[in-house]
Each structure stands twice: as C-alpha cells, then as structure tokens.
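Minutes, project check-in
Item: structure for the 371-residue chain
Input as provided by the requester:
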Amino acid sequence: MAGVLDRRGFLKASAALATGAAGFSCVEVARAAQIEIPTVDKLSLRVLIDSAHDQFLKPSTVQGVVHQPPGNGRGSDYRKVLHNQWGLSLFVETQRADEARTILLDFGYSPDALLNNIEILKVDPTKIDALIVSHGHHDHYGGLTGFLDSFRDKLAPGVKLYAGGEDNFCHRVSPTGVQGQFTDFGQLDRRELAARRITTVLCETPTVVAGHAFTTGHIKRSSIERILPNTFVQRGIKDGLGCDATHYSAAELEGKIIPDEHVHEHATCFNIKNKGLVVISSCGHVGIVNSVRQAQEVSGVQKVHAIVGGFHLGPAPKDYLTEVVAEIRKLEPDVVIPMHCSGLNFALEAQAQMPANVLVPTTGSRLTFGA
C-alpha cells in the first residue's frame, strides 16, 4: 500500500506542532505510518444539512446507490421544518458483519440548523463514535460547539475530533471586493473544544477513524485542477487562539493575509465490500480529482464506487468546469453525488457528460451504499 506523507515533512510539521501548540492537551498528531484500510459491508449517509430541500423528490436507485428523500421535511410538529443553509453536515452509519459505527462529518454553519434537523430526522447522536471536520471553514464547523453543548454528556467520554491538520485552526477572512479589505470569517477555537473535553487528532497522514473509515491525509495536487478564489488566511497564535505558523512560508511568518491554499483539507473515505471506494469531499477546494486519486493511492483500491459531497465548482467558468467533469468521468465512478458548493452548473454539466451516473440529493436525504 502506497501513499503517506514523506517522513521528513511529517516530522517537521510534528515538531512545529509540539512547539506552537504547547499547552493544548486536547491535541494529538496522527502517526506517520501505513494504515490497514478497513472494508465495510454497508454505508448510510443522512444529509443533516445542505443548501436546499426538495419535498417533491422521489425515491430512486442509481448504479446500486439507494436514495430515500425526506418528503415534506416536517417532523411530528407541523410548525417545524428542516433548515437549509450554506454548509454541510452528514450523519454517517456503517455496518461490517454485526459491528456498527457512527460518525458525524462536519457540522453546518450554525448549531440552530444542526440541532433542529437532528430532532426532525430523528437520528441518534448518542451513537456517535467519532467526529470529523473536513477543513477550517465556518460553514463546516460552525455548528460544532453548539452541538457539543447539547450532546457532549451523552457522547462517549473519549470521543475525538479528527481534523486534517493545524491549518484548521487558522484565522480566515473573506475579500469584500475592495482591494485589501476583508471581512472576518472566524476560526475554529481549540480552547472551546478542550473546555468540552474533546481531543483533536491532526490527521496530516492517512488515518483510520472508528475502525471503519479512513482519511486521505494531505492531498497531493497532481491534476489540472486549481483552487478557485475563496477565503484568505492569517496564521499565528495569540492568547491561545489561532494556528501555529512555524512551518509555513516567510510571508506567512510575517503575519500577512494570503490566499487560502487549504493545506490541511482532507477527504473521508470508505471501502465498500465488492463495490469500491466512496470518497466524501466536503468542499473539495484542493480538487475533487486530486482527492479521489489520493484515496486510491492511500488505499491501493482503484475502483471508485461513489464521489460524494461539495466539489467547490459553483464559481467555475464554463470551460474549466467542462474540463474537470471530463477528468471526473475518467475516474469511472459508478455514481457522482454533488452537494453544497458543487453548484447547479456542476450538476448540469455532470448530467450532460455522465447521464446515468449522477444523483442529486437534498437536505434530509438518506443515501445507502452496499448490501
């Protein structure tokens, strides 16, 4: 099995973390070692938060993937309805023989939406074995602390949050459209996690999560894909808030606000028995093709059953979008399931190039892979 970070790079990062994150007993670093890729019999994704809800969607099956939409999105109280917002959260359940695992992947933009939808969809947070955050954008971690305030005492005492790396804690800002002016886009606060008794595991190398999932670790950038304009980042720690900057560039060390390269965005993956890989790219800033290739390299599994999640192609110009979808098609996935920041333009282009392989879900949908 191939595909871990080179040991020199990992040790350099680890040394920096040991210095910059000193005093944060809530942080662990995943070891630089090859991992045994787990296989599961069945995977179920419940879409807790996405940007839209369509009550008229009908149940469907695409290339063996079963899609059950949520209907009208109301719970037992007609005055409550599913909340949609810019962001993503997935309630992930897996089965291997008689062994079940549950992971909460990303947490949406706000706790209000997350908690509302958990109640309406009647998922059971007490079953959660692990938490994963895909990257350091507020629309993916914004609901986390509110979720923990409601459910921490009902979760296992040793439950952990798996993050792609130190970069998740950096301060991010968004351009206003005026040269040199930005608006605050927040930062994930490890002090709040420590106060809620959550240990964060920094997965700069591939990491097995809850014995059923694995993360890609750092994603190599080898495809034609490029990072489309989004946030800017400012690195450094002040009063315990922020990210360690000692293993970054000279400009970053000077505290400059620079374009965000999403160096620690990672994908969450599953190997489905007799089906192949399911690769979940919550936002895909570093490229969805890059993410899938990394999952293939890490796992040694070439067959791609499904590519799922946000692909950040909503802002893509037409010629670039067409080219990326063509590259996705070359991966020969059984099904492509766009969510969140993928964009209507992506869904339409994918349906044009891969008409038998696209499934578009909605907030509240349940997707089932495998037996």
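Outcome recorded: DSSP finds nine helices and 23 strands in the chain.
No further action items on this chain.
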